[in-house]
């Protein structure tokens, strides 16, 4: 076999998206270029890696197995790439993290000082919904996941970051009761917490769904409805009065933002350095960057 590293990367992107179009966009390549390299890679196997059905591309079972091998191979090559710097006493390499969407209000503060300390590190941070975060973790595509709820079907280890408090929030300048409830999409941890709360409190108000925390926030500001959301993401809106906390029984809901990783995972030198950094600097980060938040939930 005579495949290239570039072909491995292209194949993994096609597997990730099940789409040559989306893979080419992510790779900043033309669709014909992706198709040509994918064909050259597939031609080296006697068993098909993909199947074209109509305009859709489907990955075969064998293709998924080859993707696992390709992913491990690229991880090993990345290790090899940075070995020289490691032996020189420098921490260098890639740190791959996937965060649930509302984790974007938390994780940057726990990364900034680390990246300042180790300027030889390349950060890959994917902010997406909880389902995709856990899928990336299961496939061992990332070093760490940032979640507020520990998955029940995975054996993981964790480092707690900060408490996550979810309040019922409404429009602050034109508040009205009995507004519809605005839910996040299926698979969102916030959605699950909100559904559980209203089921227990037998709420039957009309409801609709939006696909991001930012969209939910803007909908509340516009007066479309109320929603249970993490207060950590609405500091400015609470201060300027465009959003307000609606006091309800058994609220706020409480979870914890945490870094999790697969149990028994072979951590890279970069991943080990990051955990050491968190253990050393976490309390300072909370004091310096989240004091408003800590004060807020002392008062509420």
Plain-language structure description:
This protein has twelve helices and eleven strands. It has three domains: 5-79, Orthogonal Bundle (Arc Repressor Mutant, subunit A); 88-162 and 256-299, D-Maltodextrin-Binding Protein, domain 2 (3-Layer(aba) Sandwich), CATH 3.40.190.10; 164-255, D-Maltodextrin-Binding Protein, domain 2 (3-Layer(aba) Sandwich). It is globular, with a radius of gyration of 22 Å. It has helices spanning 5-17, 20-27, 31-42, 61-81, 83-87, 112-117, 130-138, 189-200, 213-221, 235-240, 269-289, 291-299, and strands at 50-53, 56-59, 93-100, 121-128, 144-147, 156-171, 181-183, 207-209, 227-230, 243-246, 253-262. The protein has 300 residues and is an alpha/beta fold. The longest helix is centred in the N-terminal third of the chain and has 21 residues, at 61-81. Strands 3, 4, 5, 6, 9, 10 and 11 form a seven-stranded mixed sheet that branches. A two-stranded antiparallel sheet has the order 1-2. The protein has a two-stranded parallel ribbon with strand order 7-8. 44% of the residues lie in helices and 23% in strands.
């Amino acid at each position: 076999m005579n495949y290239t590293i570039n072909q491995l990367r292209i194949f993994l992107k096609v597997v990730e998206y099940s789409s040559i179009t989306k893979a080419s966009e992510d790779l900043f390549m033309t669709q014909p270029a992706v198709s040509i390299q994918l064909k050259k890679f597939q031609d080296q196997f006697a068993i098909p890696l993909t199947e074209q059905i109509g305009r859709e591309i489907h990955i075969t079972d064998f293709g998924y197995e080859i993707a696992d091998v390709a992913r491990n191979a690229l991880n090993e090559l990345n290790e090899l790439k940075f070995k020289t710097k490691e032996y020189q006493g420098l921490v260098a390499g890639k740190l791959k993290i996937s965060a649930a969407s509302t984790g974007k209000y938390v994780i940057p503060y726990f990364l900034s000082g680390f990246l300042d300390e180790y300027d030889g590190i390349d950060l890959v941070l994917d902010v997406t919904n909880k389902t995709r975060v856990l899928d990336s973790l299961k496939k061992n595509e990332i070093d760490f996941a940032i979640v507020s709820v520990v998955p029940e079907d995975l054996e993981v280890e964790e480092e707690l970051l900060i408490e996550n408090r979810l309040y019922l929030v409404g429009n602050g300048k034109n508040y009205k009761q009995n507004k519809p409830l605005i839910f996040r999409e299926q698979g969102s941890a916030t959605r699950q917490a909100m559904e559980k709360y209203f089921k227990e409190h037998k709420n039957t108000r009309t409801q609709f769904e939006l696909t991001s925390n930012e969209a939910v926030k803007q909908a509340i500001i516009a007066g479309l409805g109320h929603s249970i959301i993490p207060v950590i993401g609405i500091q400015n809106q609470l201060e300027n009065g465009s959003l307000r906390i609606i006091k309800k029984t058994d609220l706020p809901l409480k979870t914890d933002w945490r870094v999790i990783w697969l149990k028994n995972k072979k951590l890279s030198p970069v991943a080990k350095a990051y955990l050491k950094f968190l253990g050393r600097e976490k309390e300072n980060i909370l004091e310096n960057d989240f004091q408003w938040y800590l004060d807020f939930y002392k008062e509420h």
